[in-house]
Amino acid sequence: MIDYKKLDVEYDQVVILDLLSDSERTNWKITQELDATLTGERFSTRIINLSNKQELLDTLAQLTTESKAGKRYMLHFVGHGNKDCIGLKHTGELITWSELEGPLQTLNMAADESLVLNMTTCKGLNVIKAVNHMTATKPFFGIVGYSDDLDYRVGIQASKIFYLGMSNGLHINEALTKVQKDTGDDKFLCITAQGYSESKNKIEQQK
Question: What residues contact 195, with CB distance under 8 A and at least 6 apart?
């Protein structure tokens, strides 16, 4: 019988990692809306606007240092994504999901395997591809993401429902269920790295 790990953590901050262009930030106001919702529900937030891949890697390294000192963060990505990567559409710079495995793995270990990613991107659920099912050390505990192309307005609505649910004491999976119910959209999903790995291992064994 598989012993599934449970998440028991109080986050110090929700760190919003924004990979959009300045014009997209101004026009869509995704991070602005997220920050307003989170602070309205008394979450501590930190907004980090990123302009290239190296800035993202440097930020993950800095958060790793802070996590080693005892801080615990949920990371909320805002940007463009597809089945293979997240990227900065305005510069054409792409960061494959697999490239995030190492930096996130180090951060997750520093955070006692409590790292959760919330993805407001198209096909953000594909960040699960950063998980190597053959490796015990995972890049995060779990993820919340969308399995298809995501309209930014729907993404904002879903995030508001999600964080309001968490503010009212719901666990992540319960808050996600509320998102599905209130939006009428079952493409919002959450996956744990352990659950994904166990499923992949089972598939490999059946071959």
Answer: 4, 142
